[in-house]
Amino acid sequence: VNATSPVILELGREMDDREHVYARIEGQNAIGLAPYELLVMATQPPPYWKDRRFIEIAPPSITSITVESPGKEPVRLARDEVTTLWQIASPMMESAAHLSIEQKLQAMGQSQAIEYRQPGDTFEMEKVFGMTLSTRNGSDRRLEWFLIIRPEEDVSDEGEDQPPLFLVEDSESELRAIVTEDTFKPWTGGVDTFRDRQMLLFSPDILTTLKVEIFNGPSFSISRREPGSQWMVTSPSLPEPVMADPKVIEDTLKLASRMKIKSFPDIDWQDAAQVGLAPPRAVYSFMAKTGDTGEEVLVAQLRLGTLDQENQIVHAAHNRADRVYTLEPADALSLPRDIHRLRAPELFPEISSGSRISGLRWQSPVGNISYTRDRETGSWAGIGTVEAEALDNFCSSLADYRVDSWRGFGPGSLEALEISGDAGSGLRLQITTTDGSTHQIRFGKRSPRRGIYASRSFPEGDYVFNFDAELVDKLSTVDEISLMYR
Fold it and tell me: N or C: which end of the chain has fewer CB within 10 A?
């Protein structure tokens, strides 16, 4: 047989076993057998051979999509001519969830029909969805989905739970596809389905300043000279530089950049004051330096309003539009609202090593204990009986000590933690360094976290933290120290 010419296979009647049919190649005398299924396939009508992918589309060629769902306002999506990103063009102008729309188009292009029907086939139907796809060449493709209403006599007891079937009419095809609901369901949620749920648009890596403004509260900011350098507390103005905790800053910026909109409430911007957005309860401004001049520009801004505990939402807005959104409380309330959250975890950033500590003085209502290190020999002398090695280890631990989390305190909280006041422990540790400077820790009651509540003063204010009780326990070789902190 010439490989370039068609080969015609002739099929005869089926055999008694109904598993085979007689067959021969046209022009040959030999008769053989072929599978019975081949005869079944060969006698199918033309729709049987059509590609089951009933909507063959190339997503990049689609420039506009209009979707119509019963009971919902029609939505038109349009590609930006410059960026090619999807935008909501109607019923409002707004950013769209570009990646989600592209994924929906890809899935639609792969959707498969169960079967095809000829134009003459009739059904009792009800329209449930419509879509118009516009392409770059100016053509419009109209698609409509109809629910096929089955006669009651066709629904058996076993078939009551069968999924509904839909017929699709396509302006570019005479054949009509029979499909399931998943071929159009992702498009039917109304305009909210297509809205961009990304609250803020920025990359944490490029930022150089974060400003935080709290309504009727403190305002502060952190900055770095350039991406990749150390973050420093730059406001309020301090007598000496204060390093910010790089992990806290990294976590804060990642959280803000990934924050998702929870819902789109029907609240007019003129009523923003009713949900705490005019003025906002807190404002977070994210800034970066421009490449040309080095001046800082606003990249993104988050405004937080009131917390609705009943519905578990926080009202919010951003600088790209005067609209009200909502966020998850866990996201919004995790952002820092006071400067204490931003300080680096080193308890004594001024003390580079334990050898720089030249004196320790414990002060309490039951007495004082002092230890002094000789600058020449490094030996310890003092009232207590703690061994020199234990004191050296304690000093090294203080120099390396990193606080799990700092926190500020309001009126009365120091008394509640027994750091000060009549019920306070009165225990203090004064540390002297080789340059003559002194630093102090005040201790309170024991905390539930196997520690002791303590506070330390910094230029920007006092901080409370949980001090590791084991460090004090290591020095408790004499009764007088253990008596001091109970």
Answer: N
